[in-house]
Amino acid sequence: MADSAMRLAGLVFAALREASEDPPGVTRASYGPGERAAHAILRAAAEEAGLEVDCDAVGTLCMTLPGADRDLPALVIGSHLDAVPHGGNYDGAAGVVMGLALAAELRTQGRMLPRDLVVLGIRAEEMCWFPMLYLGSRAAFGLLPPDAPDTLRRTDSGRTLAAHMEEEGFDPDVIRQGRASLDPRLIHAFLEPHIEQGPALVQAGLPAAIVTGIRGSLRYRSCRATGAWGHAGAVPRAGRRDAVLAVAALATALEEFWRATEAAGRDLVLTMGECWTDPALHGPTKIPGEVRFSLDIRSEDPAVLEEAGALLRDQAARIEAGRGVTIDYGAPLPVPPATMDARLRAALQRGAEAAGVPVLQMASGAGHDALTFAGLCVPTAMLFIRNTGGSHNPEEAMDLADFRAAFAVLAAAVGEIAA
C-alpha cells in the first residue's frame, strides 16, 4: 500500500473516532449526529483527493473517480458508516475508507480504469436503530415499503424515519414513491471490504479473507413455550408441563442437528439468543409454565435452512405430545443466502497471489449491504480484514497492517475486475 494512501486511511479513521467517540466505544446512529459527522469526514477527504462527490435524496454518499468510458456501468466499492451504540470504529467504515484510499491512490498515480470507480458511503445498515434490514441500501434502490418512513421508528428516540431523514436534510418522499437513485443495470460489480466480525482470521493467523457467501437465516424473534404453572414440591415429574425443560429439550435437539450438519461438512450456525420466564410470574418454588425465547439459524446452504425449519416443526409436535407443552415460534424472518460471484472471487484470489498476501476462503455469518446488491443480480464480492476483539463492541480492533494487506489484494485485483 502506498504511503500516501496509508496516511489518508489513518487520518480518516482517527477523525471518525474523534467525531463519534462515545465511551467506551463510538456511536453513529442511523440518520443521527455520528453518522452525519462520518459522512462529512468522508466527503471532505474525497473532495481533497480530487474525486467527484454527490449525495442522493436518502443520504447515500457517492465519491467517483472518472474512468475512460463514462457510459460503461461503474465498478462500485463501499459499505456503511453508521455504527451500533458504544461499538467499534471500523465496522462498515473500513470498507468505505478502503474504497476512498484506492480511488485516491489511482488518481495520484494518474491511472485511469476503463470505467468509473464509485465509492459509496451507505446509510443505516445497522438494524439496531431502525427495525429494517439494510435500510440504507434498499432505500437507494427504491426497495423499501412505501410506508417505511412513517411506520419505522428509531429505537432510541421513538421518532419516525421520516422525521430523522428530514432533520438530516433528506427527502422521505422518495421512499414513499419508490424512487431509486441506484440502478443495478448501471453497476458492473460491487465490492464490499469489511472487518471480519468473528475469530476465524485471528485463529488462522491470516490478515484477510475472500468471502465465499453470506449466510442466509431463519430468525424467530418471538418464540413461546406454553405449559402449566405449578407447585415445585407438589407435582410429580409425570404430571408436569414444564416449559423450561421443554425448551431445554428443543435446544438439545437443535445442537445435535448442528453437530451432525457440521460432521457432514455443511455450513450452519445456530443461536438461542434470548430465553426467559416472566419475572412477574416465576419463582424458585414454581414450575415454569411459560418461556419466551428467540432463535437465529444461519447457513450458506438453502437446503440446510429448509431442514432446520422442518426440524423445528417436528420438535414442536414431539414436545407437545411428550411433555404437554406447546411451542409457537411465531412469524419467521427468512433471509436467503447470497453466494458471492465466482469470477470476482477468482480475481481477488489472483490479486492476493500477486500481492503476496495469504488469504482465507470463508463464509460471512453476518449480513451486509452486499446482500442487497447480490439480490438484484449485481456481481458481488466481499473482502474481509482481520479484526481482534469481536465486533459491535468497543473492543473491536483492526490493525492497520492488516488493512494494508487487504488493500494490497484489492489494488492488485482492481484492474482485472474493472476490465
UniProtKB/TrEMBL annotation:
Q: Which domain of life is it from?
A: Bacteria
Provide the leader sequence positions. none
Spell out the InterPro entries in the cross-references. Amidase_Cbmase (IPR010158), Bact_exopeptidase_dim_dom (IPR036264), Peptidase_M20 (IPR002933)
Q: What are the required cofactors?
A: Mn(2+)
Keyword check for Manganese, yes or no: yes
- Cite a single Pfam family from the UniProt record: Peptidase_M20
Record's NCBIfam families? hydantase (TIGR01879)
Q: How does it assemble?
A: Homodimer.
Report the protein name in the record.
Zn-dependent hydrolase
**Organism the protein comes from:** Paracraurococcus ruber
